[in-house]
Amino acid sequence: MQLENQRSRWWYLLPIFLQIIGGVIAYFVLRHDDPGKAKNCLFLGIILTVLQIGLSLIAGVVPY
How many CB atoms are located within 10 Å of the residue 33 CB? Predict the structure, then answer.
C-alpha cells in the first residue's frame, strides 16, 4: 500500500488564477503525491474556463 503525501491547499489558487492551464499544471505536479487533489485542481480549472466562456457569451463580449 502506497501512502499519499498531503499537499498544501494553496495549489487550488493555480487553477483559480490560470484556469485550465493552471489546472493542468497542478494536475501534473500533484498526480503522484496527492491524486485526489490533482483531479480536483484539474476539474476546477475546466469548470472555471467553461464558466468564463459561458458568461462572456451571455454578456455579449464574444459574438455568437
Answer: 12
Q: Which residue has the cell 480536483?
A: 40
Give pLDDT, residue 49: 96
Blockwise average pLDDT, block size 10, the chain, 64 residues: 73 94 95 93 96 89 66
Task: State the Cα–Cα distance between residues 26 and 42, nearest whole angstrom.
Answer: 7
For 12, 31, 37, 55, 64, the CA distances from 26, given in Å and listed in that order, are: 8, 8, 9, 25, 32
Cβ–Cβ contacts within 10 Å for residue 37, how many?
20
